[in-house]
C-alpha cells in the first residue's frame, strides 16, 4: 500500500482528568482513580507527547479548561476527525460530559484549518452517537471503514458518513471480555501499513467472516487475544515520521505483543511507546484514543 498517513496529531492536555461515571456504564476497562490521578495522567500525557516529538511527529497541544468539567477530554479523537481535502467531521457523543469536550477554542482552530465541515452533532438531541475514530476505524488506502455497533456507534450514522467520505462501511457486532458490546471499535482493532491488529474473539461469531474478508486488503493479520485487547494492544495508531512509519502503542500494550507478532509489525513500521498506565486504568482508553490525526 502507498497510504498517506498523518504526520501530525492534536492532543488535549488534561486539567480535571478523572473517572467519569457516565462513560463507566459501558466501559469495563475503567476503575475509580486515586487522588493523584490528575498529576499522574499529566505526566503520562507529556511523556507521550515527547515520545512523538522525538519520532518526528508534529504535536498540536491544547490545554483543557477547568469548566465545564470534562474528565475524558484527553481523548479528542472521539469528537472530531480530519481528512484529506480540508475535511473536518464533528461527531455526536453519547454522554453530555463528552459533548462538552468541544471547547470553542479548539473547534474554532479546527474550522479555520479545515473549512469543509460535516457537523453531525445535532443527532445528540435524538440520542444517537457516533464517536469519531473510536467508533470508526478507517482503512486508509483500502477504502474500507470498520464500525463495531454499540450505544456509542449508530449504524445508520456510520453508513451515511462513510458515503460522504468515500469509504465502504463494514458494520459488525462485538463482545468485550465481559460479554457486552465493546464500547469502541478501536479497542479491538487497528490498521497499519500492510497489517491489521484484530481481536477476533471480540467480533460476534456470526460477523467474523465478513470482517476477516474485509480486512484481507489491509495486509497481514495480527490476531490478538482478549487478554491483549484488555492490555490495549489493539489501541494503536499508524503515523508518518520523517524517518519512516511509526506505530504508537502504550508500554502496556506493546509489552503484551508476542515476539512473532512484534516481528510482523516491525517488518512494516517502528513501534513507539510511552507509559500510560493511569490513563488506561482510570479512563479506559489508551494511545490511539489520545491522538486525533491532523491531515
TrEMBL record:
Database matches in Pfam families? DDAH_eukar
Protein name, UniProt field: Amidinotransferase
Q: Which organism is it from?
A: Fimbriimonas ginsengisoli
